[in-house]
Every structure is written in structure tokens, then in C-alpha cells.
TrEMBL record:
Residues annotated for substrate binding in this entry: 8-9, 39-40, 71-72, 179-180
Protein name: Glutamate racemase
Organism per entry: Anaerococcus groningensis
Keyword field contains Isomerase: yes
Role: Provides the (R)-glutamate required for cell wall biosynthesis.
Gene from which the chain derives: murI
């Protein structure tokens, strides 16, 4: 069996797992740290520490390679994890950048505080194209999504604030710079006053990973917190059978 580890600060990485399971058969082990989400406003050292704890746990399952399904972790901890564990770690930001560079025009990066402050997308897109990249940190969104708020007035109020610059300038491309955000894609599109090209970094990620496929996929999900709200969100995202276990680290 090929064992693929996928991890995130919470539920958002399930949007990446969904893409992987739909396109490549393997034994998947997912860890979502909902108990300590969000990561986006935490110090770098703490994010690296949490990421290390997650990988240390997943190593019990003989993982062949990892997908870092979190933009925040990708921008801060990829090098550390590769050096410590001497394994391949594929950061979701790499996929997001490759997807973005396929389009022309200016961009808005909608992301966590840490992802925005890293300027990963801005620096790399502007260095490799003639596009200008705007950035908006959206700190309230992860908490709302983790709490099961994926539509409604409360979410719309936050999105109205975060999408203000997009609606003012009609920015053609919007990068979902947090893997939680595809969960609320419909709400994002609803709160735009124009038609934008929404870029999900998880799109086509399966085609960017090379491993020997199995005959069937097995999906194992570990969450540091399980409640009725996030269980409903898991069921909404994943269209496959899975095993769910509570695991605090």
C-alpha cells in the first residue's frame, strides 16, 4: 500500500483530501487539528511545533509522502519538516501558485494573516508575470467555518468586509489562500458584485503527486476535536467512505 499523509489546522484540508481521493487511489491518513484552529494568527515557532507534533503522530502509519493541506503551515514549516523527517512534503501553496500562473490579470489573495504576511503568492506571481497582487487577511473565516457557519448573515457580513477591495476594483482572479475557503465558495461568489475567476489551490493537486496507485482508496481521518458541527462538515465535503477517530496530540 502507498500511504499518503495529509494534514491541516482543521477541516480545510479535507477539500484537498477530496481532490486526492477522487483522482488517485492510496491509503490516506488525514489529521485535522480543529481543537487548536485557527493557526493563521499564531507565532511561527508555535505553528512549527504543532506541525511537528502532527507529523510525529502520522509517522506511526509509515507515511510515504505528505501533502501539507494548509497554506499557513506550507509557508512557515515546509523546510523544517523536510529536513527533520527526510521525506517528501508537498505544500499546497506550490499547487496554488502553479494554478494561479495559468491565468492573466491581477489577483486578490484571500488568506489567513500568516499567509498574507508571508507574501508568498504576491512575491512569486509578480516575479513571474506582469500581474499585480492585492492581499486581504480574513481572520474571522476559519473560526466561522470550524463552528459550522458556512452560509448566512453572519458569514455574509464578514465576506462583505473582506471582499470590499475586490468589489471596488473588480479584480479578475481571487486565490483562496486557505484550504478552509473552498467550503464557503458559494458564499464568496454570492458576495461578489461581479464574476471573478476563483482559484482553488487544491484543483489538480493529484496530478502533481507521483506515487504508485493502489486498487482502492482507504481514508482514515483523525481530528483533535470531533463534534456534531464538524462531523456534518466532513460529511458535506467528502463523498467517500472514511474512518473517523478522535486524536489529541
Amino acid at each position: 500500500m502507498t500511504n499518503i499523509g495529509v494534514f491541516d489546522s482543521g477541516l480545510g484540508g479535507l477539500t484537498v483530501l477530496k481532490e486526492l481521493v477522487a483522482n488517485k487511489k492510496a491509503n490516506y491518513f488525514y489529521f485535522g487539528d480543529s481543537l487548536r484552529a485557527p493557526y493563521g494568527s499564531r507565532p511561527k515557532d508555535l505553528i512549527i511545533e504543532f506541525s511537528d507534533q502532527i507529523v510525529k503522530f502520522l509517522e506511526n502509519y509509515n507515511i510515504d509522502q505528505y501533502v501539507i493541506a494548509c497554506n499557513t503551515i506550507s509557508t512557515l514549516a515546509t523546510d523544517y519538516l523536510e529536513e527533520k523527517y527526510n521525506k517528501a512534503f508537498y505544500p499546497i501553496t506550490k499547487s496554488g501558485l502553479e494554478n494561479a500562473l495559468a491565468f492573466e490579470g491581477d489577483f486578490l489573495v484571500l488568506g489567513t494573516q500568516t499567509t498574507v504576511e508571508s507574501h508568498f503568492y504576491k512575491n512569486n506571481i509578480e516575479a513571474n508575470s506582469t500581474s499585480f497582487v492585492y492581499e486581504t487577511a480574513a481572520p474571522k473565516l476559519v473560526n466561522l467555518i470550524e463552528d459550522g457557519v458556512i452560509s448566512g448573515e453572519k458569514l455574509d457580513k464578514s465576506l462583505e468586509e473582506y471582499l470590499k477591495i475586490a468589489n471596488e476594483k473588480h479584480i479578475p482572479n481571487i486565490i483562496l489562500g486557505c484550504t478552509h475557503y473552498p467550503i464557503i465558495r458559494e458564499a464568496i461568489e454570492k458576495n461578489l458584485t461581479y464574476k471573478a475567476n476563483i482559484i482553488n489551490p487544491a484543483d489538480n493537486i493529484a496530478s502533481k503527486l507521483n506515487f504508485i496507485e493502489d486498487n482502492k482508496s482507504y481514508v482514515n481521518i483523525f481530528m483533535s476535536e470531533i463534534n456534531e458541527k464538524n462531523k456534518q462538515t466532513i460529511d458535506k465535503i467528502l463523498a467517500c467512505d472514511y474512518k473517523l477517530k478522535l486524536k489529541e496530540i
